Structure formats: C-alpha cells, structure tokens
Recover the amino acids of this structure.
C-alpha cells in the first residue's frame, strides 16, 4: 500500500498547489483587461503577480517569475508607466541573461520533475523570441526617457540573443532530441510506438503549417529599431545600412518603405524630422490544453493520459492602420509577424514536447501498474487519480506581446499632431515639431476602444 499512499499524496500535493490553474486564471483576466482597453488595470494585475512572488528581489527565477515580470513590464508599458516598465523588463532581462552563453537550459532536476509530473513544473526562462522582444522593448523604454546609451546596450543584447538563436537553437534542439530519444528507448518506448503517437497527434498541430518563420528565426522588428536608432539618436556610432537591409530582406511588404529609410543614410533625416510608427496589433498567439488518451500500452493499464499545448492564433485584430498628420496620410505595412516567429519556434521544439509527454505518460502508467499490483483495484484507482491530477500541458507564454507589428514613416507634422485610425479613429498624440520620433501604437483587438500610445523622442546624442 506504500505505493498507493505515495501516489495519492503526490496527487493531492499537485492539486493543492494549483500553479498552472492560477496562471491560467491570471492570463484570462489580463487578456480581458487588455482587450477592453483597461491598460492600467492589466498593469496592476500583472504587477501584483510579479511583486507577490518577490520576483524583483530574486537572483534566480522560480517557475513563473520571469513570465510575470515580462507581463508586468509590457502591461506597464501599455499603461505608460515608464519607471515600472524599466524595473520589470530590466529584471526579467537580468534573470534570462545567464542563458545567453553560460548556463544549460535543460537542467537535470527539471527533466526529472517534468517527466514524473508535467512540463509546466519547469521554470519558465523565456523563449528565444521572448528574450529578443524583452531587450528590444526595454531598450525603447530607456530611449523614451533619454537614456540612449543604456537603450543601445539593451538593443545590442537583443542582437546578441538573435545571433545566439541563429547559431545555437537548432543545435540545442538536435541535442535535446537525441537525449530524449535515448531516454525513451531506455523506458521501453519503441520507435514504432513513437511513430504511432506522432501520426495520431499530427492533426492537432496542423494549424502550424500556415506559419512559416523568418530565416534563422530572425525578428525584423529588432533590425528596424536598430536602424532607426543609428540613423537618429545614435548617429555616427554605426552605419544603419545593414540593419535596414536586413529588415527589408526579411519583410518584403515593408521593403519599399524601408528604402526611404536607406535614402536618409548620409543625408540625414529631413529638416522637419521624421516619425516612425510601430503599430502593435492583436495579442500574441497562446496555447490551450488538449488532453488525450495516448495509444501506447503499458502492461494491462487501461488509462494512459497525456496533455499537449495546442497553439491558438488570434483573428480579432486589425492588420493595418492609417497615420495622419501635416496634411499627409500613410498606411502601415507589415514588418514583423510575431505569430510566424512564435509558431516556428514551437514547431521546432514540438518533437521534444511530444516525446517528453510520452515519457511522462508511460512513467505514470508504470506507477499506476505498480500500484494496481500492490493494492489491487484501490491501487489502480489511486494511480488513475495520480495521472489525472498531474497531467497538464505547459500553456505558459508571454501573452501581452502583439500578434503583428506594422510600420509607417511620416514627416513629423509642423503642429506635432498625429491621428491614428483603422476603420475608426483609435487615438491621437502630440510629438515635438521638427523632431525625430518613434511612436508605438498598440491595439490589442479590433474591439478595443482606444489604442495605447507611447512616444519616444530621438534627440541626437553625442554618446
């Protein structure tokens, strides 16, 4: 009966913690606030979560510390709370920074926990695209308060994340696949069983096929922001030619507009200044949990459960926006599709996600079988409770990021007034006449009443 009691205790322990349930409830409430345009409320909600876990005081991340810091940073940015944004994004960046080149992400202790229980028990350390976006948004926020040197350092770190992603990501995935394949063989999961499971699950992940990532998992938003910085606030530090060309090559839809950026190199921005507008539309793709019986037999146990994260893509968002000012009207063009980036990352790691869950499920099935042998029908019931209680997909993701980033450039209006509209007016803002400026306009959904707008002056700096 010892095995039975252990399984029941483990089940009750998992049920009592409810970490995944708490995260999902938080996520749903935050998204509801954002889609309703309640930016301050969303920021308060996320800040409470980050602070309640003492994330700002942590020197190493816990299960959701990084995730709550990212959500708090982005929602405070939408609420136009610069100081809090810098605190949260800055600390998230600090916690993720060791994983650039020094620390292995697949820690042995986490592998044991996630196989025995579920993948949501691992520490959330940010996806590669999370890290790039964190440092990019952090850099923009620093520039917005005039800290151009610090902003440049953050953008450089984002570029380092990008380079690291290019050189290491596929290699790390291949190494992890190899280790998981050996582990599955050691646990008695045959290649035939894996193939059967993959074929069974294939239809549930077919929605990823429509989303092809950028070359080397690149993010054209980072490349363009760097170009604008070196053309304006960081003039003379570095020629922006390559970063603009990279952005144009990655985003053909934006190539014609970026050609205008390239023409300014050497000549400088117009005497009246230029304003770059990033339209951040929709909210990032997310995951829902799909629970299934997996067709891998183990002894005569008749309950083998598995849970998988299925990526969901938003539909209720505007793809384009009009920018008006100074007698001109410019339509945005698609620059960076974060749905493509997130889908391509997930697709690359999907074989690991599936195989890890198969390992977890067979381990639990073996424990259930052992409980049945030791305790009869009551032992099997305990095993079933254990499986049901501990089977949970990892649905964590940085949800407050946009789904798509579109770009427009317009001469800075003489009166400084800019208006933004889709099929309706979504906001206005005043910028400094004669200045170079970045404006970020975020509209979480098509039904959101008003956009969140941040202005980032690009005053020349001697650096």
């Amino acid at each position: 009966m010892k095995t039975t009691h252990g399984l029941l205790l483990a089940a009750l322990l998992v049920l009592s913690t409810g970490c995944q349930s708490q995260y999902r409830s938080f996520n749903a409430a935050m998204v509801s606030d954002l889609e309703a345009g309640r930016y301050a409320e969303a920021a308060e909600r996320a800040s409470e979560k980050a602070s309640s876990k003492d994330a700002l005081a942590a020197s190493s991340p816990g299960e959701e510390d990084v995730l709550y810091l990212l959500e708090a940073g982005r929602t405070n940015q939408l609420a136009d709370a610069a100081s809090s944004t810098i605190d949260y994004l800055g600390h998230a960046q600090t916690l993720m920074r060791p994983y650039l080149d020094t620390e292995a992400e697949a820690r042995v202790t986490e592998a044991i926990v996630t196989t025995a229980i579920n993948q949501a028990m691992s520490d959330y350390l940010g996806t590669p695209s999370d890290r790039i976006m964190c440092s990019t948004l952090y850099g923009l926020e620093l520039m917005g308060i005039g800290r151009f040197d610090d902003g440049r350092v953050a953008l450089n770190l984002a570029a380092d994340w990008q380079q690291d992603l290019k050189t290491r990501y596929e290699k790390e995935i291949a190494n992890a696949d190899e280790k998981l394949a050996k582990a599955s063989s050691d646990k008695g999961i045959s290649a035939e069983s894996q193939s059967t499971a993959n074929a069974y699950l294939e239809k549930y992940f077919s929605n990823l096929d429509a989303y092809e990532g950028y070359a080397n998992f690149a993010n054209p938003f980072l490349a363009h922001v760097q170009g604008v910085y070196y053309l304006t606030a960081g003039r003379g530090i570095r020629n922006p030619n390559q970063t603009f060309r990279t952005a144009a090559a990655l985003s053909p839809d934006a190539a014609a507009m970026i050609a205008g950026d390239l023409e300014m190199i050497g000549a400088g921005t117009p005497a009246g200044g230029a304003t770059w507008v990033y339209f951040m539309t929709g909210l990032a793709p997310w995951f829902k949990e799909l629970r299934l019986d997996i067709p891998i037999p183990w002894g005569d146990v008749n309950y083998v459960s598995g849970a998988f994260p299925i990526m969901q893509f938003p539909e209720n968002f505007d793809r384009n926006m009009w920018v008006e000012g100074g007698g001109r009207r410019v339509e945005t063009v698609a620059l960076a599709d974060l749905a493509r980036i997130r889908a391509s990352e997930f697709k690359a790691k999907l074989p690991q996600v599936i195989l890890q869950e198969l390992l977890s499920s067979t381990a639990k099935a073996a424990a259930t079988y052992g409980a049945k042998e030791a305790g009869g029908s009551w032992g099997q019931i305990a095993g079933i409770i254990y499986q049901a209680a501990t089977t949970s997909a990892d649905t964590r993701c940085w949800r407050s990021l946009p789904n798509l980033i579109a770009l427009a450039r317009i001469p800075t209006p003489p009166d400084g007034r800019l208006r933004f509209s889709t099929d309706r007016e979504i906001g206005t803002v005043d910028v400094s006449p004669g200045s170079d400026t970045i404006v970020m306009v975020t509209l979480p959904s098509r039904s959101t009443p008003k956009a969140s707008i941040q202005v980032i002056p690009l005053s020349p700096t001697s650096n």
